[in-house]
Structures are given as structure tokens and as C-alpha cells.
Specification:
single chain, OB fold (Dihydrolipoamide Acetyltransferase, E2P), Rossmann fold, 3 domains, seven-stranded mixed beta sheet, 8 helices
């Protein structure tokens, strides 16, 4: 007798009946936490002190996730989100929480994670770096989706926990000058004869002006190209086309690399695709605080790991004897070198290296006075293995992930360093994302 396979239902994904839950706190991703039948339940969109009606959508052995259905009793800290796209867009996730409460939550999360993973006593919290809560984001990437069946083009951001592109006409965390470009760009791209060749659209505005980078998979037809040329002139935006290899070219004529400015008239150029901090005013404050916390002196040699295009290296070089910058992306090493030359800085040298690999043979690895780290979310754990060779008296760690900062701090403690200062950096208001700066000193 033949037997046929019958798929069993996935019990971990089965929907439950609706349940009433009391929310006690927020987790480090901004979701509300409640208890139900001995399990921790995470409810995105719920706030501490609220009673909510929710539906369990995923169950594991020790925890569950729930979808918020209705707020039965609202928190006093709840507010009406400013953005009309908030419920659908996957960008911001804390607009429903008052700003002061957002920042208090982030500070508490930072200290809790540091205490949990590092085991240190936190009596070192400093004043947070926090600037404006809206119109702060100088760079954004919009997705483009062309539905071949309906022949409709959608320009916007990905939805919450989804790959679906949500049509966006405005974005309050972008400057007005960029936000007001979104709808017109959607209209002009919808007029192109071959919309299937469009990839994504990146917008940014820095001191050198507004730039748009349009990803295309093949060359534009002449009439489409002219349509975009006219649009760019009307909107006073420099439009670049990015090909399959990631190379950019101006849609008409030549283009100069965009730049942003730092203190003391420093201009840092970057190529589309290079990393820069998206919150310009917070970045200015971070650089100033780095110089202050490191207590830079004219005789110092400073090592800057994960240096990018020179965001910290070049300001440091104006105050110390020598700066050594190391970066894992070859293009950004070249750009940092070019930025030093353009700013007449001769005491900064830049090197390429995989900072998660064996660094023992690197010529730049030497004893230094101070060390600055600005790694990606994965942290700098592998680089810290070489601390004994560097022997810095002070280590400044700029982090975009407090969990990896907390983990890496344990390695610093093991090698004889003490946490002297810790501060929140509110780089992304209206979201749960937490950045921080920590100063460690050798005992």
C-alpha cells in the first residue's frame, strides 16, 4: 500500500486565540514584554503599563511573540505618531513613545546590557548626545518595485517585517528638501518606458548639496535619460546612475564627489556606497566628545580602527603627533588618504586590513598612546586580541550595538582596563537603535 507524505502543521507558527496581557517593560528591540502561561511574550508596539489585547503568532519553548490587536489601557507616555506611514513602514518603530521616554528607555537598555554582559558597576554614565528628533537623517535608500502584471511602480520603504515595498510620499525623519523629493521621483520614474530596469534610489544631502543615486540594471533609452536630466535640473539635485558593478556616473557631464564638513573646516569627500554617519549633527558632537574623552595631546600617537573615510582620524590628526587609520574596505582607505591630502594633513596614514583576521604581520601594528574603535554591529572582539601589542593607555569605543560593546568590554577588563565613561548617542530618534561611546583606561 502506497503511503503519501502529509505535511504536519507548524505548531510554533499557529495562531492562538486573542489574550489580554499586561506589559511591564520594553526589550532591547523596543517591543513590549509581558508574561503568559509561564512564558515571556514580546509584543511590538506595546508600552510598559499598558493592558493590551494580543494574538500569539509564534511560540517557542521559553518565549512567544504576539501581534498587537487592541490597546485596552494606554500608557501616559503613548503619543500619536507624526508619520502617516508609521503603521506600515518598517523604518521607525518608536514614534508612539514620547521622545524623553524614548531616550530614557535607551539609556536604561544600554546600562542593563553593559551590566549583564560585562559584569561592571555602572557609575560612569555621562550626558547623552542628542540633537533634533525629526529631519535628522541626511541619507536614505528607497526601494523600487515594478509589478509587471499591474504595470504599477512603487517607490518607498520596506514594510514592517516584510519585503513588500510600501509607497512613501513623505518621511519626517528626512530633511524637508529630501522628503519633498520622494513623491516627484516616484512620478518621474513611473513615466519611464522601461521601469523593470530600476533597482533602488538613494537620496542624501550634505554640505556639498543634494545627490540622488539611481540603480539601473541596463542602460537607459535616450528619451528616458532626457526625462531624468530635465527632472534633476528642475529639482536642483545631482543625479547619478549606478550600474551592475556598483560604479556611478553622472547622468549628464561629470560630477564631483560629495563632501560633508567637520570642525576646523575639514571637508570629507565620499563615494556613493561609502559609509558615513547618517545623522550629521550628532556626528559633529560625537567627534568633539571623542577628542575630549581621549584627552588628546600633541605628543600622542593614535590608532583609529574601522576608520572609514577618516571621520575621526582627520580631526584627531589636527591635535596629535600621528594618526594611524585602518579600514577593511579598500575604497574607503583610498578615500581617507585622499581626504587627508585635500585637507593638507600630513601626519595621518591609512592602511587596509581585515580587522577580524590575524594582524600579527601588519607593519602598522605597534605601541600607541590611544586607540579609537568604531566597528560595525559585529563589534571589535578579534581586534582586541592585539591590545598587548598596542598597549594604549586609553581606548575609546564608539558602538552601534550595545550588546557587542558589552561583550567586548569583558575582554578589555580582562586585559587590565577600567570603564571610566559611558554615554548614550541618540543617532536614530524614533527608532529603538542605540549607539554609545565608552572610554576605557589602563589601570
Amino acid at each position: 500500500m502506497a503511503q503519501f507524505f502529509k505535511a504536519q502543521p507548524n505548531k510554533s507558527k499557529q495562531l492562538s486565540s486573542k489574550v489580554n496581557l499586561s506589559v511591564t517593560q520594553l526589550d532591547h528591540l523596543g517591543a513590549g514584554i509581558a508574561q503568559h502561561q509561564g512564558k515571556v511574550v514580546f509584543i511590538a508596539g506595546a508600552l510598559p503599563g499598558e493592558t493590551v489585547l494580543a494574538q500569539l503568532v509564534e511560540q517557542k519553548k521559553t518565549y512567544a511573540k504576539a501581534k498587537l490587536i487592541k490597546i485596552e489601557t494606554a500608557s501616559e507616555l503613548r503619543q500619536q505618531p507624526d508619520c502617516p506611514h508609521y503603521q506600515q513602514c518598517g523604518g521607525c518603530d518608536l514614534q508612539h513613545l514620547q521622545l524623553d521616554a524614548q531616550r530614557e528607555y535607551k539609556q536604561q537598555t544600554l546600562t542593563q546590557l553593559m551590566a549583564k554582559f560585562s559584569g561592571c558597576e555602572l557609575d560612569t554614565m555621562q550626558t547623552s548626545i542628542a540633537e533634533q528628533a525629526w529631519q535628522y537623517r541626511r541619507r536614505a535608500r528607497l526601494a523600487i518595485w515594478f509589478d509587471k502584471q499591474s504595470r504599477q511602480l512603487t517607490v518607498g520603504f520596506r514594510g514592517k517585517n516584510s519585503t513588500k515595498v510600501i509607497s512613501i510620499r513623505q518621511c519626517p525623519v528626512l530633511p524637508d528638501s529630501l522628503s519633498k523629493l520622494i513623491a516627484p521621483f516616484g512620478q518621474v520614474l513611473g513615466q519611464l518606458s522601461d521601469k523593470s530596469l530600476l533597482g533602488h534610489l538613494e537620496l542624501f544631502e550634505v554640505e556639498s548639496g543634494k545627490v540622488a543615486v539611481l540603480r539601473i540594471t541596463k542602460a537607459l533609452k535616450n528619451k528616458d535619460k532626457q526625462l531624468l536630466i530635465d527632472f534633476a535640473k528642475l529639482q536642483q539635485v545631482e543625479l547619478l546612475l549606478q550600474d551592475n558593478e556598483g560604479q556611478c556616473s553622472a547622468i549628464e557631464g561629470e560630477f564631483s564627489l560629495p563632501y560633508y564638513q567637520l570642525e576646523k573646516q575639514l571637508k570629507l569627500q565620499f563615494k556613493p556606497g561609502n559609509f558615513i554617519q547618517v545623522n550629521g549633527s550628532v556626528n559633529q558632537q560625537m567627534v568633539k566628545q571623542a577628542l575630549t574623552w581621549l584627552d588628546v595631546q600633541p605628543q600622542d600617537t593614535v590608532l583609529d580602527l574601522f576608520c572609514g573615510v577618516g571621520n575621526f582620524s582627520l580631526p584627531l590628526a589636527q591635535h596629535v603627533k600621528q594618526v594611524i587609520g585602518v579600514e577593511g574596505v579598500v575604497e574607503m582607505v583610498a578615500q581617507a588618504t585622499a581626504n587627508a591630502k585635500a585637507n593638507n594633513i600630513t601626519n595621518a596614514a591609512f592602511y587596509h586590513a581585515d580587522l577580524s583576521a590575524d594582524l600579527s604581520g601588519e607593519a602598522w601594528l605597534q605601541k600607541v598612546d590611544k586607540l579609537l574603535l568604531d566597528p560595525a554591529r559585529a563589534g571589535a572582539y578579534e581586534s582586541l586580541a592585539w591590545l598587548k601589542k598596542m598597549q594604549p593607555k586609553k581606548v575609546l569605543y564608539v558602538s552601534c550595538n550595545p550588546a557587542s560593546l558589552a561583550r567586548d568590554s569583558a575582554e578589555l577588563f580582562a586585559q587590565g582596563y577600567q570603564l571610566k565613561r559611558l554615554g548614550l548617542v541618540d543617532m536614530f530618534p524614533q527608532t529603538h537603535h542605540i549607539e554609545a561611546m565608552a572610554l576605557f583606561e589602563l589601570k
